[in-house]
Amino acid sequence: KAGVTQTPRYLIKTRGQQVTLSCSPISGHRSVSWYQQTPGQGLQFLFEYFSETQRNKGNFPGRFSGRQFSNSRSEMNVSTLELGDSALYLCASSSGLAGGGTKETQYFGPGTRLLVL
Amino acid sequence: AQSVAQPEDQVNVAEGNPLTVKCTYSVSGNPYLFWYVQYPNRGLQFLLKYITGDNLVKGSYGFEAEFNKSQTSFHLKKPSALVSDSALYFCAVRDWGGANNLFFGTGTRLTVIP
Question: What's the confidence (pLDDT) of residue A98?
């Protein structure tokens, strides 16, 4: 079956603009998590959505937000872009149940590379 | 609190030799441990995971990892390295009973020398 897809793959924005990234999970998966990857900070968790509800949020400012639709597709939005937001944004899906103790494996998309000028 | 340490930024190994990429972890409960590989300009690919049971876990592409509870380690191994194994490897942990998010190590760049 098809893997996790992310659009767009590449994006260039300028400071102060906003951006929306999209993630379509593997069919049947209900959980979507977002991660930011930068050379300096490595891989950091942004947030997770399950059944249209945000389940957990990482240590990022309020400029970073997201949502999940009834078909499990998810979007993340970054407002008032800063140079430091330049990164590879990865989303991952799993079928895992909401809450703790999940044994599910997360499968990652190819990422969206965002460059802020 | 959860954390993962990959003590080596870079590992070089000759083709055909065994390879080891090290990972140690810290969680408050029982760990779920994962290894992912990242090839240039690509996302993360799942290699293997430890949930419970046998301490030796076998995964994709001939990789395996050994869970050692007393040393809180989960080192990735392969008996014979291939040039195509050259990539960035990430160890990750999730705490049993915790939220569904992964904590990643800083990554180890593996270079297999022909």
Answer: 47
